[in-house]
């Protein structure tokens, strides 16, 4: 299925979970300092084992320096 | 006595902005010298090539995290960013920024107040970056913000305190902490804000972009302490003419 991860069109196997996407994005796998939004809505950590769906816009964010 | 915000006390009145340092190592050195116990950070798309974790550096330094909503131009984006930060950092503290102008990065008052009300309702401890408008500061306090953070001048400008009169009005009326956020250029600016009665200072660029960030961090720490001490000690009034400090009584006749 086709989704967007951080603005890039990406092909994913069926049944890929949010947690899988986090790991594939290169974010720290324990999820510390990481947050996920799908189609503009926050995905709570408790829901990271849910599968992603075709055409979703997934944002995987991580802590950076900022004033 | 330290800085108390929403029932939590930090010993240092300097809040450390982590933006603009050329490396995490330089930032860590400056953070040590600053003595800060609360530091800002942000969320951006994952960069797989990024080295080191800012969260690790801050936690090793014993610093509490204050995520920001930098880069947001609408209340909606700021609220979602705050909710993402709460997930990422397990804190409901948020430095709320809603920008209204790209060139000056001045806050958008209407969007800021809207976002503050939504986030307070959602259980956040909201520290809004605001313009130096006493009426807006009061509206933010009335909305339930835990502090107000007026700018001295635009972010990263180093201009200092543009409107000391407004800053004093904000300090006089506020019953939540007033933290000067943005515009500091050098140590005397920080001291001046503290002498005006601010409860704390948040600064990033003035340290991060100085030629020697760790030494500037130390200068800022001393300035914040000096300014606070001077404020608490009660300065003398300004006079039009001199007032001798040596007694005129007992002067000998020499001619």
Characteristic terms for this protein:
heterodimer; A: 67 residues; mainly beta; 5 strands; globular; B: 255 residues; alpha/beta; three-stranded parallel beta sheet
Strand numbers in spatial order across the main sheet of chain A: 2-1-5-3-4
Q: How would you sum up the global shape of chain B?
A: globular
- Indicate the multimeric state: heterodimer
> What's the β-strand tally of chain B?
10
Radius of gyration of chain B over all CA atoms, rounded: 20 Å
* Strand neighbour order, sheet with most strands of chain B: 3-10-9
Query: Structural class of the helices, strands and pairings of chain A?
Result: mainly beta
Give the rounded overall mean pLDDT of chain A. Answer: 92
Largest sheet of chain A: 5 strands, mixed
- Rg of chain A: 11 Å
Secondary-structure element pattern of chain A, one letter each: EEHEEE
Strand residue content of chain A: 25-35%
Helix and strand content put the structural class of chain B at alpha/beta
Largest interface: A-B, 27 and 34 residues
What general outline of chain A do the C-alpha atoms trace? Answer: globular
Strand content of chain B: 15-25%
């Amino acid at each position: 299925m086709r989704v967007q991860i951080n603005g890039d069109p990406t092909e994913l196997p069926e049944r890929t979970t949010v947690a899988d996407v986090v790991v594939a994005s290169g974010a720290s796998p324990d999820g510390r300092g990481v947050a996920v939004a799908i189609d503009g809505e926050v995905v709570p950590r408790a829901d990271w084992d849910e599968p992603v769906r075709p055409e979703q816009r997934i944002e995987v964010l991580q802590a950076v320096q900022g004033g | 006595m330290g800085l108390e915000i929403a029932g939590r006390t930090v010993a240092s009145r300097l809040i450390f902005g982590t933006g603009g340092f050329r490396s995490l190592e330089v930032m860590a050195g400056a953070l040590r010298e600053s003595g800060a116990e609360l530091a800002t950070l942000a969320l951006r798309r994952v960069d797989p090539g990024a080295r080191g974790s800012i969260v690790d550096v801050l936690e090793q330094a014993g610093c509490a995290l204050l995520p920001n909503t930098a880069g947001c131009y609408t209340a909606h984006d700021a609220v979602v960013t705050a909710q993402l930060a709460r997930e990422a950092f397990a804190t409901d503290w948020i430095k709320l920024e809603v920008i209204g102008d790209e060139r000056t990065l001045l806050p958008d008052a209407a969007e800021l107040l809207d976002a503050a009300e939504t986030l307070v309702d959602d259980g956040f401890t909201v520290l809004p970056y605001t313009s130096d408008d006493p009426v807006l500061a009061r509206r933010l306090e009335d909305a339930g913000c835990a502090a107000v953070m007026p700018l001295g001048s635009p972010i990263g400008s180093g201009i200092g305190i543009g409107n000391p009169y407004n800053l004093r009005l904000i300090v006089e009326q506020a019953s939540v902490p007033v933290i000067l956020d943005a515009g500091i250029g050098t140590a005397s600016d920080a001291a001046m804000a503290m002498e005006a009665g601010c409860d704390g200072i948040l600064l990033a660029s003035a340290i991060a972009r100085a030629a020697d960030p760790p030494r500037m961090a130390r200068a800022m720490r001393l300035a914040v302490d000096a300014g606070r001490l001077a404020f608490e000690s009660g300065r003398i009034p300004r006079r039009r003419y001199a007032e001798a400090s040596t007694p005129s009584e007992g002067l000998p006749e020499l001619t």
